[in-house]
């Protein structure tokens, strides 16, 4: 299906501010992917919005091109203030989007903290993954229940665990298709698009945080460092995933 069949006036206006022809074409390709995904999966499609830079770009494009794609945010209870501020700003700027927030199961979380302690994740990789399981994976399962496909902001160059990423992959763990419309984008392209489109983003990015998760598990990195080296920095780089995007 051609992109011309999808374009709406508001979306075309949004892209008028993009003067770089190559960047504009990449944005049009992402829009085509989003619109085709909506056509293919309908209400079976959802977008996992982490409120990072990539998802800020996707949110802006969806708000203009396909606001009926359902979105969800996982609030782990340990998100930075800046992330929650962005969540409020997104809701205010785009009231037309369908965004739901999922929280950890209260009883399960209370049991975990009572047994292991609030910062047990520092003690071992196993405990860190168990914490991610309670705060992220269990809410994710609820968010994906009944869905046929989900959209993510993953990119190949984000980490060594994602360098073989494809646009569409089978998510065997959750039993549905995973779509990554920005899989072939660079970090520089993401930021060029955010600035050209004047989209809101997490202000921690301006403080040296290219990748942002829970506050105690994220720190700033030096320019040129691996973008995800500030996540779970006390662990081996090959294991720095929370389990949301296990491949």
TrEMBL record:
Recorded family membership: Belongs to the PAPS reductase family. CysH subfamily.
Cofactors named for this entry: [4Fe-4S] cluster
Name of the featured protein: Adenosine 5'-phosphosulfate reductase
A Pfam family of this chain: PAPS_reduct
Role this protein plays: Catalyzes the formation of sulfite from adenosine 5'-phosphosulfate (APS) using thioredoxin as an electron donor.
Gene: cysH
Major subcellular site: cytoplasm
The protein's annotated pathway: Sulfur metabolism; hydrogen sulfide biosynthesis; sulfite from sulfate
Subcellular location: Cytoplasm
InterPro entries hit by this protein: APS_reductase, PAPS/APS_Rdtase, PAPS_reduct_dom, Rossmann-like_a/b/a_fold
UniProt catalytic activity: [thioredoxin]-disulfide + sulfite + AMP + 2 H(+) = adenosine 5'-phosphosulfate + [thioredoxin]-dithiol
GO biological process: cysteine biosynthetic process; hydrogen sulfide biosynthetic process; sulfate assimilation, phosphoadenylyl sulfate reduction by phosphoadenylyl-sulfate reductase (thioredoxin)
Organism encoding this protein: Marinospirillum alkaliphilum DSM 21637
Enzyme class label: oxidoreductase
Gene3D superfamilies: HUPs (3.40.50.620)
Keyword line: Cytoplasm, Iron, Iron-sulfur, Metal-binding, Oxidoreductase
GO molecular function: 4 iron, 4 sulfur cluster binding; adenylyl-sulfate reductase (thioredoxin) activity; metal ion binding; phosphoadenylyl-sulfate reductase (thioredoxin) activity
Cellular component GO terms, alphabetical: cytoplasm
Residues binding [4Fe-4S] cluster, per UniProt: 131-132, 214, 217
